[in-house]
Batch of 4 targets.
Target 1
Amino acid sequence: MPETKTPLSAMEKELIINELQNSPVQITIVSFGAKDTASFPEPVIIEANLTPLSVTGNYLFICRNNINSPVNGEKIRVSFYARKLGYYFDSSIRILSSGMCIPLAASIYRREDISKSPVNAKCTLTYNAKDSSINIDCIPMKDYDVFSVQKFESVPEHISENVRKMVRRFVQDSKKGIGGPVGNGLHLIPAARYLCSKLNPTDAIQGRKNPLDLLYLDETRLLLGDRDNSWNLELENEYTATFTFKLSALVTRTVALTCSVNDRLGSDEKKVCAVLKIIGCKEEDKRFLCERVLKK
């Protein structure tokens, strides 16, 4: 669970604690353990009250939700918002007579801002709206091999069976004329993996519109994930995807692709994948993509 490891100062931590004590707070927890044995293999949002322990001077989150079978002593990561900014700390579950509790750790960290993640490739999706242009950041999804063929072996084990079922359903729907054509189907595995995953809802800044998630690219299509369907990429709409590839410390290469949405894949109304067909690309840019990025 990589994050920025810069702990808050004592004064910053005190300000956070003072704010959290004023009212119930929503916290998101996820286990560090193996997916098949963890109590919380995917992020779970619960309400809690931060309470001081007068004897030790420490603080404890007393959870208000009923959680199924938590394990005493299980290591977890806790994320929360304060003053609209995202924070996290690592702790462990404590089962007391009052229910499940979580000790506040000595060190609290700011959450990484996903819109500013250091990556070797950046993408911006642009479209025209009335008299202006709208630019949307597209951030390469962590742990997805965006520029390579993604196989079932790369899917986390705890969702692998659901991903396989969803891919089969996509293919069957296409044969029935439901949705867009799947072509060679190389985008279906990352799409199903994205839709079957429970994404951590805690962003670095509360209330900010999420960027799009870049899931897959080849010379024919672009796959983007919209985790809360806030951008509503519509079928047949035309977009320009501008990629900037960092080839070295001083050299970058920009590639512009004209695309149109030819399918929308979604397991629910809040999280969707937009499949964009590449309909325009300079020959030298296509050659660069195939030879330098896609390694074909």
Note: The two ends are 32 Å apart (CA to CA).
Target 2
Amino acid sequence: MGALHRFIESPQFNRDIVFGEWAVISLAQGDVDALLSDNPVVHLGDLKENAFILMLPLAPRTLFVCASTPEDLVRTTTNVSCKLFKAVNRQMVKQATEYVYATGRFHEPLVRKWLVHTAARNGDV
């Protein structure tokens, strides 16, 4: 078993994630697809304080969600909307190092706005 695999399965390093509240949510209506980047996990909150929400796009209209508490999971997964997907997309682009992947050119203004600013802030432009 490789080191990464052992890390992923190790409760010592990721106990809060392994034992967190998990769900898969889908956007039934709307015109927003989830983006993916070279840094694909959107992280809100603080893992050290066991107060977090993690989101990972699985498909254009599907997100994996892991929350530290049942309440956070319910708050995140109830009434899934375009607003949630747009917020995840914005954060996905902001935290991208170099690449953002999309299903089409619909998100190009968002990518141009935030990926360029992130690169400039990091001294890459």
Note: The chain has a mean pLDDT of 85.
Target 3
Amino acid sequence: MKTKKKFNILSILLLIAFFAANVADFMSDFNYAMMSMSDGAEEANNEYDSPRGQTYYYDFFNVRPNHRYDIAARNTKTGKIDSLQIIAVHAKVTGTEEINKRDTIFSIVGFFIFIPIFFCSIYFLYIFVRLVWSVNKGEGFSKNTTHRLKVLGWLCLALFCLEIFETTAINYRNGLVDYAQYPISGTYETFPDFLLLILFFAFLLFAQFFELGQKMKEEQDLTI
């Protein structure tokens, strides 16, 4: 009974962590979308006499600054002057014909990637809840448990592959952005989440353990 109780507690904590992570991502994206930017391009456009066009808010870029520490700011807590190193920028990009085309392609591809990611995530939660329920009913070492563990693993692999397409689309969209002062080395989403790939192998490994336990249980029942 204690083992089953611990299993349920850990399962609930895992679900809470899953929802908390998604809520945190949503709030971060929402704050990012609502964040206002002062238009520093106004003076630059006047200086270089470049035409204005449609603007796009791009993700945070990883940058390699020419000067390691090039900004001084007062630390309000200590009263001292500290040096700041810029390692990421949030760009408001003036559109060109090519940028407009890439942004349109990115929006279309992103929409069609979001749909399977959403349904895979919902199906993952459904299978996980069914797994917890079946274990509580005493079906720990059963074909259904092994099957559900394998399904969870393959869903993680599917989400990983979808993230590859998503990051490829992001990199394609951001391919026309670079700055002389802060050369771009990619974005924070340059690579997919490899934790999903680790979970894929972990769930398949757990499935093999449960399958082995099931066979041992069947052999023990036959012996008895």
Note: The longest strand covers residues 55-63.
Target 4
Amino acid sequence: MQERLQELRKKNARTELRKEIKEAKEFKENLNCMNSFVDTLISIGELVEQMEGAAQDFNNMTEKLEPDRDEATISTNAEMNQYKVITRDDFIRYKLSRLSASQITDSTVNNLKRHWKKVSCGFNFMIATGTGELMFYSVNYFSNYILGEHKGILDRK
């Protein structure tokens, strides 16, 4: 009986050890995911800095080209060059706010979610700009066509 107890304790200890090893592996995978996420955030931060610099360069350039513009025009152009990071929830909320109550249905929300998935290209945000009616850009499109400086870090399909 004593031997059977010891055997059961050893078996129990092995099972517990396997559980701890599995948990450690899961923790390591989560840590790798978090590191990857942090790298992505750093890349996004660099992209935002580039966008801010490009917007400032554009503002400086347009002010030099057209010094006779009135303040209202300058203000409107400055607002137009403001870029915002938009999450999925913000996007859906914005789009729904543009509809009348009778137009908002479950299928409308589902269509917006499908549209988000298609346009966001796997990212959890898009870039928006504009006054009044916002224009939305995927990160890839914005990087390639608005900034014109694609460095390969944002290639997602």
Note: Residues 59 and 78 are 7 Å apart (CA to CA).
